[in-house]
Amino acid sequence: MNGKDIAIETHNLTKIFTRGNGVFEKLRKKEIYKTIAVKNVNLEIKEQELFGLLGPNGAGKTSLIKILSTLLLPDEGSATVNGWDIQKNSFEVRMSIGLTLSSERQLYWKLTSKENLEYFGSLYLLKHSELKERVSDILELMGLSDQKDNLVENFSSGNRQKIALARAMLNDPPILFLDEPTIGLDPSFSQHFRKIIKKKINKKEKKTILLTTHYMEEADQLCDRIAFIDKGEIIALDTPKNLKRSIDEKEIITFVLSSITKTMLSEIGKLEAVSSEKHYEKDGRYILKVYTESAGACMQDIIGIITAARSQVLSFKTSKPTLEDVFIKLTGSGLHE
Amino acid sequence: MNDIMPLNERVKGELFATLYVLKKEIKLWKRYPSRILFMLLMPFLSILTLYFQGQALVGETQSEAFESFAGTQDYLVFIILGSALFIFVSTAIWGIGNAIRREQMMGTLESIWVAPVSKFTVFMGIALFDGLFSIYIAFMQLLFSSIILPVNLMVPQMGVVMGLTFLLIFALYGLGFFFTGIVLLFKEIEDFTNLINQTLRMITPVSYPLSVLPAPVAFLALFIPLTYALEGARGYLGVGPYRSLEYYVVILIIFDIVMIVAGGAIFDYAEKRARRRGDIATH
Ligand SMILES: Nc1ncnc2c1ncn2[C@@H]1O[C@H](COP(=O)(O)OP(=O)(O)OP(=O)(O)O)[C@@H](O)[C@H]1O
Ligand SMILES: [Mg+2]
């Protein structure tokens, strides 16, 4: 029954949240509204793959992870995890996975890390005789043995996230779901934590990992393959390298401008060296991205057009395409708005 | 297809999980000192309240006026038994639903939900904690009354009272499952539990015999297992009317089955609905 190569597979997975359709809500004549959180998602994630779901807030990342981990029932479509159907075999799916959520509150703050892990280990039906040993091994793996008797409330956010990851690994499941694993962590700890995920958990412990993030560097750095998700839909799926290669242009000039006008955009678009542009507003400023074969060939002209349109260049930089640029090119908006 | 875990291992795992839930509840409870203070003082304060209330109303522990309603003069024993048994009802009503609500507020509920353990196992662990808590309070109430007040409740017949209480507990835990369903459906528990708690206290013979109630209200009491546990316990101790032990035992067992099945079904429905709406964890 268990698939040899494919760890996670979904067919047209769809989740539509309906609100206002409860008995009391109907009585109060509340309006019924629907949110499509996940739309026709088809994925195939291989065993031991580190797979990233990258998308902006509200894209449906958490919903997709919750469906795959049986916390949320889909409305349409189907999925298997470790070969088990997520609806018919929820027990087996739960036995096959570990999950960390982005909330810091997923542990008991008034218990020590060891007490937390022993408790959750018992909920994973670990054998009584193996439980204590497993807990101390996993604390060792996370480098937290010396903090086993500290209350979780006294931990740093980073170490709390480590304990959450330790908990997800308790029953040694083949598959891990990590929802925004580094959210709220400072950059250096994030870096450290990513290393643990990639080197220890993915490579050494050979876990299949599906993680969500809206940090494109994180996805770029960690993932074997990435799916871009926007408004519930997968809009691109490939290795980070191929995704970046999908932008033909070699350079991108990013301007921060005080204003943008239509004529300015059309004139820039007409320049020979410019292949396309994208623009959006962020914090009251305007971001203009110009995709070009060569920044040097068009920079003077562009600045001329901007000045003529009475806008100011607040800053600019030229760069190689990043995953964010791919995302912007696909959706017309950035990951962080 | 269920080759992921052999059945006997699974059953063992679930049993151990029950104990670990109990252990966790005790640990969490110990880390809030106010709860320990409550536990130490609660039995004495409640008994003294009943005693002084009795003094004010009937002037002593026996009352002829009371006999005309209750079939016994022994006001104090009557009411202490009522209070001791009602502890089990209160904690059962408050217990599981509130514990689940607490997990929901703390943010740990989804982590429990995604674990393979049966949710009823988790409830049983909590119920075990509540049961131990209730036994302690009830026992201290009886002990304290027997030492300080002019009644003696530390008698061998209490064994039968304990047996009836034990039978009552299962029905109450059916009610506990129901309240867990309520938590998942409404994200609210306090008003519901307060309402049910007060209603039960009013319509069942906890503080007074059924005969003081208007007939329609007293009729409602017949659908509540606590009524039979109280009547059986008091009757057996000779403070009130009594049928036969078998009568109370059979009725309580029927309540146990019906309420566990019904409570479980309501919980199942609520759980599915919450998973469809994605609001297991929503405050
Ligand atoms: N339980 C729910 N009920 C109603 N709507 C919901 C529920 N959960 C999520 N949604 C909606 O579904 C959409 C997808 O949400 P989801 O949390 O999956 O996005 P996300 O990609 O994880 O976002 P974020 O980066 O903010 O975590 C959003 O529009 C959200 O408001
Ligand atoms: Mg999310």
What this model shows, in words?
The complex is a heterodimer of chains A (337) and B (283). Chain A has twelve helices and 14 strands. Chain A is of the alpha/beta class and 337 residues long. Chain A has two domains: 6-244, P-loop containing nucleotide triphosphate hydrolases (Rossmann fold), CATH 3.40.50; 248-320, Alpha-Beta Plaits (2-Layer Sandwich), CATH 3.30.70. In chain A, a hairpin with a 2-residue loop joins strand 12 and strand 13 (285-292). In chain A, helix 4 (113-123) crosses helix 5. Chain A is globular and about 75 Å long. Chain B is mostly helical. Chain B has one domain (11-277). Chain B is built from eleven helices and no strands. In chain B, helix 4 runs parallel beside helix 7 (158-186) and helix 6 crosses helix 7. Chain B starts with 6 loop residues before the first helix and ends in a 6-residue tail after the last helix. Classes of the chains: A alpha/beta (337), B mainly alpha (283). Chain A binds chain B through residues 1, 15, 17-18, 63, 66, 69-73, 84, 89, 91-92, 94-97, 99, 101, 103-111, 115, 118-120, 122-128, 167, and chain B through 1-5, 9-10, 12-14, 16-17, 19-21, 23-24, 27-28, 31-32, 106-108, 110-117, 122, 272, 275-278, 280. The site of magnesium ion has 3 residues of chain A, from helix 2.
Can I get a quick summary?
The complex is a heterodimer of chains A (337) and B (283). With 337 residues, chain A is α/β, with parallel strands linked by helices. Chain A has helices spanning 23-27, 61-68, 90-96, 113-123, 128-141, 157-169, 187-204, 216-222, 240-245, 262-270, 295-308, 323-331; strands at residues 6-19, 33-46, 50-54, 76-81, 84-85, 97-100, 175-179, 208-213, 225-230, 233-238, 251-257, 274-282, 285-292, 313-319.
Beta-strand percentage range of chain B = under 5%
Radius of gyration of chain A: 23 Å
Beta-strand segment tally of chain A: 14
Estimate the global geometry of chain B from the Cα principal axes: globular
Q: Would you spell out the secondary-structure blueprint of this structure?
A:
The complex is a heterodimer of chains A (337) and B (283).
Chain A: E1 6-19, H1 23-27, E2 33-46, E3 50-54, H2 61-68, E4 76-81, E5 84-85, H3 90-96, E6 97-100, H4 113-123, H5 128-141, H6 157-169, E7 175-179, H7 187-204, E8 208-213, H8 216-222, E9 225-230, E10 233-238, H9 240-245, E11 251-257, H10 262-270, E12 274-282, E13 285-292, H11 295-308, E14 313-319, H12 323-331
Parallel strand pairs in A: 3-8, 3-9, 6-7, 7-8
Antiparallel strand pairs in A: 1-2, 1-4, 4-5, 9-10, 11-13, 11-14, 12-13
Chain B: H1 7-30, H2 33-58, H3 64-70, H4 75-106, H5 109-113, H6 119-148, H7 158-186, H8 190-203, H9 215-221, H10 225-236, H11 245-277
Helix pairs in contact in B: 1-6, 2-4, 2-6, 4-6, 4-7, 4-8, 4-10, 6-7, 7-10, 7-11, 10-11
The complex binds adenosine-5'-triphosphate (ATP) and magnesium ion.
Adenosine-5'-triphosphate (ATP) sits between chains A (17, 19, 35, 37, 55, 57-63, 214) and B (277-279).
